Amino acid sequence: MTYRKPLPQPNADTKPFWDGCKQHQLRFQKCRDCQYVRWPPSIICPRCHSQDTEWIVASGRGRVYTFAVYHQAFHESFREDLPYITAIIELEEGPHLLSNIVGCNPREVKCDMPVEVVWEDITEEFTLPKFRIATQPDVNS
Amino acid sequence: MSMNLKDKYAIVGIGYTEQGRVPNRTALSFYVEACANAIKDAGLKKEDIDGLICYRYFQPARGEREVTPYVTAQCLGLSPKYLSQEANCARSHLYHALGVLEAGLCSYVVIAYADNALSSQRLIDDIDPDKAVFGQIGYPAEYAMAAQRAMYTFRTGPETWKEIAVGQRKWANLNPKAYFHNRPLTYEDYYNSKWVVEPFRVPDCCLISDGGRAYVVTSVERARDLRRPPVVIMGIGQHNPSSYIDQSTWMAGPSGAKIAGEIAFKMAGITLDDIDACEIYDCFTYTVELTLQDYGFFRPGEGLDWFKDGTIAPGGRLPVNTSGGLLAEAYFMGMTPLTEAVMQLMGRCGDRQLGARTGTREPEIILCSDNGATFQTHCCTILRRF
Prior knowledge:
Chain A is mainly β.
């Protein structure tokens, strides 16, 4: 079946992230000078303005910083998913990532709940990182 | 901005257009009409206008070109010495106007916002592809996420927000230009309304409107000779805690309102007790709560008690959004709150006029806010009667 939802549009900044997703790796830029892990990608560290950057692979574990439950579709292709959950995930490595929480009832989701990444291969070219309520015990709790 | 701007500049005229659902009109036509009406309202001639600032228009509707201040000026027969166009609306526009007035580059500046968003067909603008892939489209969810985090952090939620939605609707019911003029809202209606993006229901979200709004700014000295009693700018402050909303760790406050408010109050030399009413940018109910909280009207979580029993409604002790606001009058960005404050201080508000008519304090000083993106940019403006 044809995938009807919007597709990622990688640009020079975000391409390494989407390439990572394709390999089921959650990649973020890390500043080699101050160790700050950032998102969205940028040529410069917003903390210290260093351009000395490496890409790291994140664990895929984090917590729900906050979330919202869509009851109306703002794009026709999401109507079939209603109600669906978008969330900001606070990853163990620091950055916040916007994604979906899948595989649960919206009533189960709470702020600060531990979650882990699940990969959704949507086309030959693209994979989306989504999250589910953690099945592994949260190492930080 | 230096403190010597206090009491130097004033708003002297407001331009309205037909508003609400107004089909078969271009955005440009609303811009032109609002500007012409503002110039006339101030008692000025078009030849007097030497500055024009327009909002940077969204994606144009099908068959329309992007509205620019050049085109607007041309349609108005103006040849200003200063034209500007940008996205931060009432937040930055008034700053720019005060800057060119203070520098002596202009004498009378018109600021305008207009749109035909309700009746025209256009794509949703400002789609961030990195978010759209997850179905995160439009502002309601971004503010809903902030509100959700606030519900987790302090005592707030629909119980608080219903007071804002119902209170503002009562003002709209007194305003014949308001979209919801003839439609009251009860607490029961609020709870029975559909979810948009949970935790927001329909009455938590602002309107989409056709129409336009404009106003004229000049020096208090020049304002003395004009048609209307000028409304004096006592204080203004802006703060932009810029960060992508998804990286924000301050969704539950403090937003830019805190520092913007401190700057404005310091310039004005007044305190919260001097404020007779507030016109708060209200894209969503929670925005009103967080803004008033960050200004210091109540502490985090005390909003529920503060709003209870009609505090902000007609007859209340601190009226808020007396036109109905963006939730219930019309959506003209920061222009809706700012122009309403001016109309109230000029005493031109009919059935909704603050004072004896609505069982509220006679308005001497009104606090206005504008907020943008998702709590990433904020402007506080304090206005007083001349």
